[in-house]
Structure formats: structure tokens, C-alpha cells
Design goal:
The structure is a homodimer. Chain A is mostly helical. In chain A, about 45% of the residues lie in helices and about 10% in strands. Chain A starts with a strand and ends with a helix. The structure holds a DNA duplex.
Chain lengths: ~170, ~170
DNA sequence: CAAGTTGTAATCATGATGGTTACAGTTTGT
DNA sequence: ACAAACTGTAACCATCATGATTACAACTTG
């Protein structure tokens, strides 16, 4: 508890609270894309287990299962307990990076930009600045998300296959 | 150290390392915009000290001074040790949200999206997926940043003043 | 010269991320 | 039916980033 002096106004009491919440785009997102690509590329040839995917991504098998769980909840893959081999629920060109981004919950409800939580309502700027910035920051976030809608898993898999084929020619 | 078995390939040794680095858009960004707005709105009427700005933002005065330091390094404000009252170095319409975003170093060099760090180079997908995703994720980040260039401090201050005036009319 | 202010280093508390262990429940091959 | 393999999930841990806080030297101003 800290006593603040505000110009031309009575002294009042103000609580500082720890700024909480964070806003990062988890590596789960790129892991998810990696996983889905593997399911498509290796699905016909071998059993794509969480252990297998752990080997390809370098990410712990439990984390892989968690990510697969998120993708399952989002209706992107189907998995069954005890049975190996997740498979996609729809064609590659119907799955955008944005769908995956949503599935792995990259961004929480507060949005991409973290806002300082305790602007002073006694201050005319403090009680209005949030409102003013909000639409602009939301627009920036939306611009990023819309760009993610422009790429599908089909694009990713195709380009990956091309790189692999190119490797083998050499 | 974990021994991994990769299908049709010899057993090899693999190191798991903690995934490091984070990618969040600090609240320093919105704090910086808040601060700059206060400097413009209150600059003529009173001494806008770090303590004053702390009162308006609800953010610790030391953090305020750190943010002001970043804005000074970026050439957006001028401050002098011992002397209160930061002031802007150029007109409001020459300062975009993107300039402020750059100043407070919201995003490190690795980019907005965090990539899992240890994709397996023995796996054809593992050694190519990074390359494939990179340009797409960079494009998404750029879309967001370009949107930030569309708003200037002049816009923010003008709209804030309008809200304040509207309050006083009631 | 005293009071007020900035610049900055150092330390701390908290929260988020991902690694790891453990195990129950399910599937599959024989 | 049964053992082996696999998934789903909870629980706990280590590490890192953020911002709060204390402290103090250096500078400015009246």
C-alpha cells in the first residue's frame, strides 16, 4: 500500500499489484505444425507414435501428447487411447495455420498485447488510454492472424516434400 | 541424455535441452504509450516526473524511468538527469506505435513466434520444417507490425482528449 | 547548499513454460 | 486371455522472464 500524491487532488491510497499474465506465442504452435506434417508424411509408412514424434521434434513425448490433445479438442486430428497413429480429420488444404494457432491456444483472451493493469482512474489519461489503444492493438493482432489464414497445411507439406526431394537428388 | 530409436536408422544419442526464450509483448509497450500521452497532455501544466507518471500508470517509478530510458535511446524523448520533465523530440504525427514498439524492444531477434529448438536433423521433416515455416511466420509478424505503423501518437492523443472533453461535458 | 529528480545496479517474488515421473486405461498381436 | 505397447493425464520440478522494490550516486534547481 502506497500513498500517492496527485496534483490538485486530495491524497489517496493506491494499491500496487504485481503485473500478471503473459503473452507469448508458445513453441507448441510450431511443434503442432511439425507434428501434423509428420503425420501426413510418415502416416502411411510407419506407426507415428508420440515417441516417434518426440524423436523428430526434440520435444518431450508427454508434451507431444498434450499438443495432440489440443489438436483433438479442436477437431483437427483423431487419436485413440492405446492405439497409435493419429490421423487428420479433413484434407490438408482445409487446415490453415490459423486453425492450428487457435487449437494450441497461443493467445489468451486478453489478446496479444499485454496491458498494464492498474492505470489510475483518478487521472483523465489513465482512465481513457486503455479504450483508445484497444482497437488499434486488436487491429494489429487481427492483421497477424489473418496472415496465418493464408497458409494451409497443404502448402507446408508440399514445400517440405519439395525440399526433401531436392535433398535426395544431390 | 536420452537414447532415441529412429526407425530404419541406427540408434543414436540425443540431448534434450530446456526450451528457452520467450516471446511476449511486454506491458512496457502500453506503458510507453501512456507515458508519452501524459507528457503531451500534462507537459505544459505541471512537472511530469517519473513519480507523477507512476501515479497515472500504476507502474513503479523505477520501471517508468527504465521505459523513459528506452524511449530516450530510441530518440523519441529527451530527459536529463536531475531535471524533471521529459519532452518529445519531434511532433506527435511523426511518432507511430511501431516506433514505440521498436523502442521498448517488444520482440527479440528470434521473432514473434517461438520455434522449438531441437528439431531432429536425422529426420527429413525435422531438418526442413523450420525453413518452411520461417517465411510464413515472418510474414504474419510483419503484418502485425505494419498495422502498428498506421497509428501515430497524434491519433492517440487526439482521441484521448476527445474522450476527456466528452467526460467534462456531462 | 538542500531538496528534488534521474540513472542504474542489485535483489526478490511471481507466473509461465516445458521437462520428467508415474500410472491408469485402452488397444493390439499372438 | 495376456503381455506389450501406447495414450491420457495428473503431479511435481527447474528455469526463465517480468516487473516490484531498495539503494544510492550524480545532476539540477531554487
Amino acid at each position: 500500500m502506497i500513498i500517492m500524491h496527485w496534483p490538485n487532488r486530495p491524497v489517496y491510497v493506491y494499491y500496487f499489484r504485481q503485473l500478471i499474465g503473459s503473452m507469448q506465442i508458445t513453441s507448441k504452435f510450431t511443434v503442432a505444425v511439425h507434428i501434423l506434417t509428420c503425420i501426413e508424411v510418415f502416416g502411411g509408412q510407419m506407426r507415428v507414435t508420440s515417441e516417434f514424434l518426440s524423436g523428430s521434434t526434440g520435444v518431450n513425448a508427454v508434451i507431444i501428447r498434450n499438443v495432440l490433445g489440443l489438436l483433438r479438442e479442436a477437431g483437427i486430428v483423431e487419436t485413440r487411447q492405446g492405439s497409435s497413429g493419429a490421423h487428420l480429420t479433413r484434407s490438408l488444404d482445409k487446415i490453415t495455420l490459423y486453425d492450428i494457432y487457435l487449437a494450441v491456444e497461443c493467445i489468451d483472451d486478453d489478446g496479444l498485447f499485454r496491458f498494464h493493469e492498474n492505470p489510475n482512474a483518478q487521472c483523465p489519461v489513465g482512465r481513457n488510454i486503455h479504450k483508445v489503444m484497444d482497437s488499434r492493438l486488436a487491429a494489429a493482432q487481427t492483421a497477424m492472424e489473418n496472415e496465418l489464414k493464408n497458409t494451409t497445411l497443404a502448402d507446408i507439406v508440399t514445400e517440405t516434400q519439395q525440399l526433401i526431394n531436392h535433398e535426395e537428388k544431390r
